[in-house]
Amino acid sequence: MPRTLTFHLDERQQTEIVQAMQRDKRPEVRQRATAVRLLAQGEKPKAVAEMMAVSEVSIYAWWHRYQAGGIDHLANRPKGRPETQADAAYLQTLRETIEQEPSALGYDFAIWTTERLRDHLAQRTGVHLSVGYLRTLMRQLGYVYRRPKHDLANLQDAEAKAAAQVHLAELKKGREQVITGSSLWTRQR
Questions:
Q1: Which whole number is the average pLDDT over 67-92?
Q2: d(CA 86, CA 132)
Q3: Could you say which of 37, 83, 87, 93 has the lowest number of CB atoms within 10 Å?
């Protein structure tokens, strides 16, 4: 069996509601305070909803909001994106992390991707940002993403490389190139 609500206000709450109805500068607070007062005076939620030209669900929501936080909770909630969680401490951690090799922090990979960086920072700071917002922060801090240039120089034998360059130079000396007209093709002799 559903629990029935009793719409009751004590003396302090009644005074607060009447003052909000008469003096509050926010029209939505005046309207909602009026609905709360009508409920406390014994009006049924359905009748109050009809008087206010809103849904019955809104009347119940206003009552619960008032009970949870008083007059200030009857005001409209802020719209739009919530404020960023990337504070100065987060940005400092971001700068410190990006300047280090991932292997220095115990990772098996050698390059920071945006996703890896985001996950690492979320683990360190507890702040979870989207990949797009992290990229925006990186641009604001002056970092640019560039594709890695894979270099195999560390795997090459220096002596073999030098011998191959000498051999290539000798091969180039022995060839003559004949350039005719505007063609880029050459004839091998």
A1: 84
A2: 13
A3: 83
